[in-house]
Write a structure and sequence with these properties.
alpha+beta, 8-stranded antiparallel beta sheet, 5 helices, DNA-binding
DNA sequence: TGGACGATCCCCT
DNA sequence: GGGGATCGTCCAT
């Protein structure tokens, strides 16, 4: 499988959000690959009242305005990080929030990343065979599992240890759309995309 | 300089 | 299904 080319990310944001479903998000951490299949996304567009970029370019949302194919990681609720894929050309403040992934590789390490602080009675090797759903079924949870933090903000997905692989994937039950989660502005937009019936989709 | 709020999660009922 | 945790960001004084 090959990395998605820059051109993939330069396309319209809704298109990218839909097409990211099934692709493999790869994070090289301590020399090991942590891989998850993207199963849920949300699009944030220009002139979108729910978007961080709605009121223009600031220190916080600066990466959203960079060229498509960069990673925008932001801190929220005083304790959580969320990861987005930046879309379109430089100067356009649009991105796709990665809301959920299905763990594929490096599950033991993901478990450690996410649950290290808590004592877990389950043996890691056993848990790797049957990882708990709450390992990666939410935007902040997957950031914990993949160790995506402030330092990863602005990473180029075409040149580094975080990237997305093209992957043939044909969801048997198809793709669903819905309103976006946890927002109050522009809530009527059906800009959330998910793999129907997938266990790792949030809520 | 301060206050309101948030693209969430977890635990409790 | 509801509330608390917790703090960076932004905008209004």
């Amino acid at each position: 499988m090959k990395k998605l080319p820059r051109s993939f990310y330069l396309r319209p944001t809704l298109q990218v959000a839909r097409d990211l479903l099934g692709k493999h998000l790869v994070r090289v951490y301590k020399g090991k690959k942590l891989i998850g299949r993207i199963v849920e996304t949300e699009a944030y567009c220009e002139n979108d009242a729910a978007s961080h970029a709605f009121r223009g370019r600031t220190n916080r949302n600066d990466v959203m305005f960079s060229k498509g194919g960069h990673l925008y990681v932001y801190f929220t609720y005083g304790m959580h990080f969320c990861a987005n894929v930046v879309t379109r050309e430089e100067g356009t403040g649009e991105a796709v929030l990665i809301r959920a992934i299905e763990p594929l590789e490096g599950i033991g390490l993901m478990m450690r990343n996410r649950f290290q602080s808590q004592a877990r009675p389950t043996a890691t090797s056993l848990a790797a065979l049957h990882p708990p759903t709450n390992l990666t079924n939410g935007p902040a949870k997957l950031c914990q599992a993949l160790r995506l933090h402030r330092e990863q903000n602005g990473t180029d997905l075409l040149d580094g240890e975080i990237y997305i692989l093209d992957a043939p994937y044909f969801p048997t039950a198809g793709v669903g759309t819905s309103r976006r989660t946890g927002i109050v502005k522009a809530k009527e937009k059906k800009w959330r995309f998910f793999v129907k019936g997938n266990r790792w989709v949030s809520r």
